Recover the amino acids of this structure.
């Protein structure tokens, strides 16, 4: 069985999907040949290649157009699952293995009990299974080696926290968290309870008003990476709904920059000593990039 694991539109919704496929393949009996592929999906709102689809190569005649660009190769060196060649016959999945496990001979319930997504409260309080997931997906993450220019960007970003005891807070836009009207308030309170043990707090967010609020409270002890940020509490461009109810398209260069900055944010957050977050694929990704980092949850709605 030849499988190409594609991506969801969001950077880490897609990357965790791909790590979950790698884990599934390695725990199976070798009946799956896996190839990873990532593209700018915001170009195709409403298309037949939308999220959570799987398509046989025999069903369409334009897969060469889909596969000719692989964003992963803009940042990472080829590895056993990441290359420039694909088999002629394959199934293209934009779904987590858990979504189709009835079609698989084996699914690793022991390491992916909560499927690899970052949105479920249960997995963050189920420490035994979260530890298994973090360790197993960390083994998959270690297979990715950054290209030299990307490695240099990572190294330069690390200077922000070098020589300091730093805690980090990862904040998406408010609408990402169910049942809360102001996501900044619980996050700030969580930091207040811990900040005296640290030299600084790294705020990882795309929302400039969140940065402004943290700076008011924590002053120079709040550090942020140099990023373009949104002036409103809204979702990233590729995930935002327009007034017409459709997804906003990004150019390939815009998506590549979004992809780069999301990875830089998560990698830098994972290198701090303590991390605060909530339901987010980026938060889970930071935890698996550094399976030893201590974490806390600043918010979870009941039942979420």
């Amino acid at each position: 069985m030849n499988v190409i694991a594609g991506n969801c539109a969001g950077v880490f919704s897609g990357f965790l999907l791909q790590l979950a496929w790698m884990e599934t393949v390695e725990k199976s009996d070798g009946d799956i040949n896996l190839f990873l592929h990532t593209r700018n999906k915001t170009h195709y709102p409403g298309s037949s290649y939308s999220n959570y689809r799987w398509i046989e190569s025999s069903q369409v005649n334009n897969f060469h157009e889909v596969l000719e660009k692989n964003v992963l190769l803009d940042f990472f060196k080829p590895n056993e699952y990441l290359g420039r060649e694909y088999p002629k016959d394959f199934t293209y999945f934009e779904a987590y293995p858990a979504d189709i496990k009835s079609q698989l001979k084996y699914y690793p319930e022991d390491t992916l009990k909560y499927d690899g997504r970052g949105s479920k409260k249960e997995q963050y309080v189920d420490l035994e299974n979260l530890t298994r997931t973090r360790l197993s997906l960390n083994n998959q993450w270690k297979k990715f080696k950054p290209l030299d220019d990307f490695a240099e960007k990572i190294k330069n970003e690390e200077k922000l926290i070098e020589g300091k005891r730093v805690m980090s807070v990862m904040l998406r836009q408010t609408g990402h968290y169910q049942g809360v009207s102001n996501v900044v308030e619980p996050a700030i309170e969580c930091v207040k309870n811990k900040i005296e043990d640290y030299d600084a707090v790294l705020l990882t967010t795309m929302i400039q008003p969140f940065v402004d609020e943290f700076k008011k409270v924590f002053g120079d002890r709040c550090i942020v990476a140099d990023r373009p940020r949104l002036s409103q509490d809204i979702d990233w461009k590729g995930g935002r709904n327009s007034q017409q109810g459709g997804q906003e398209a990004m150019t390939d260069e815009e998506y590549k920059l979004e992809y780069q900055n999301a990875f830089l944010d998560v990698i830098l957050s994972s290198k701090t000593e303590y991390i605060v977050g909530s339901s987010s694929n980026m938060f889970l990704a930071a935890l698996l990039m550094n399976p030893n980092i201590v974490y806390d949850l600043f918010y979870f709605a009941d039942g979420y």
